[in-house]
């Protein structure tokens, strides 16, 4: 009976966290990315290594600071096909917006879906030409791409926020497709990040 009770409590805590990457973390008024905000070889960028379970602040090819462990989507990482598949998308992205009032403490939004995902989805008939053009136009002009397409959205890097930190420290992939750090780690990462920063998830 005790084992069953513990399982119910654990599942309840997990349910509270798995609604990650929610729409209220998007700042609709985020200004567009400017050409001057794009990454240069000397500027820091973020590397999420889903095999090593790390997020690293990189300068060139060298890590400056490494955070571990991270949590991913409950379906793991790879090619994200659709909204609600709970998969963390791999690829190269830019930071599109930052919400410091998120329920996940800080939410660092990525410009997913990017043109690579849009082109693949168009070829596979998962989106129409108009949706593809909306995504491509947003990327070209430095705006956050539409978050309401069948490909999903609200993908970012965030903390645990008001959730139970024990779920994160247990090594469970608990997000809906984001990359999560604990609250202390997201605080340490925050001063490094800016809109337009390169983020590679692999």
Describe this structure in words.
The chain has a single domain (about 1-20, about 30-200), classed as L,D-transpeptidase catalytic domain-like (Beta Barrel). By secondary structure, the chain is of the alpha/beta class. Helices cover about 25% and strands about 25% of the residues. Helix 2 (about 115-125) packs antiparallel against helix 3. Residues about 1-15 and about 30-40 have low confidence and may be disordered. The strands form two sheets. The protein has an eight-stranded mixed β-sheet with strand order 3-2-1-10-6-7-8-9, with helices on one face. About 35% of the residues are buried.
Give the topology, please:
Blueprint lengths: L1 H16 L26 E6 L4 E6 L2 E6 L9 E2 L9 E2 L1 E12 L2 E6 L4 H9 L5 H13 L14 E3 L6 H5 L9 E2 L2 H7 L8 E4 L1
Parallel strand pairs: 1-10, 4-5, 8-9
Antiparallel strand pairs: 1-2, 2-3, 6-7, 6-10, 7-8
